[in-house]
Amino acid sequence: MQIKNHRDFWAGVLFIVTGILFMILSRQYQLGTAAKMGPGYFPTILGGLMAVLGLMVMLPSFKGPVVKINRIELRMILLVLFAVAVYAFALPKLGFIVALFLLILISSTASHEFNLKTTLISSVVLLVFSWLVFVKGLELQFPFLPTFLNK
Question: Which of 34, 47, 119, 139 is 20 to 30 Å apart from 41, CA to CA?
Fold first, then answer.
């Protein structure tokens, strides 16, 4: 069997490996039943669904036109990973708003179509939406503003 669409194939492999990894790592928690779910139930089911989704993405990659991956954009990957690391380190001291803004700004520079005006508009929309979902809707307890402004 020849791989025709390398993008879909490797995306499917990534989903399958991640799903199986979640299923294996969630075994350390009690599974429970559908009626009385334990802490391992949701990650196990989600990992299984992710593996099935990976199969659904990967299997069609063996037919159709040939699509090759030209080159891996290492700069883009590193920028997105750096943005997530900055968010993780900034959240406790700088708060949700600043950390999320930095995440959006840094990760958006990874795109070839980066535009500062569009990024700023997207940042405001995403900040408001995230605030509504996480702070108001889910009532998650993390610093909203930088710590020096809360005193």
Answer: 139
> Residue 62, Cα to own-chain centre: how many angstroms?
27
The answer to whether 144 and 99 are in contact (CB under 8 A) is no
Over residues 97-127, the pLDDT tens digits come to 889 999 999 999 888 888 889 999 999 999 8
In whole angstroms, what is the distance from residue 26 CA to residue 58 CA?
24
Q: Where are the alpha helices (DSSP H) in 3-150?
A: 6-25, 41-58, 74-108, 116-130
Rounded to the nearest 5 degrees, what angle is found at the Cα of 114, between the Cα atoms of 109 and 120? 85
State residue 64's pLDDT score: 77
Per-residue confidence band for 84, with pLDDT thresholds at 50, 70 and 90: very high
Q: What is the DSSP letter of 144?
A: S
DSSP 62: G
- How wide is the angle at C-alpha 139 spanned by C-alphas 151 and 48, nearest 5°? 135
Torsions phi, psi for 26 (to 5 deg): -80, -5
Token output for 69? 């991956």
Compute the chain's Rg from CA coordinates.
20
Distance CA 122, CA 125 (A): 5
State the pTM of this model: 0.62
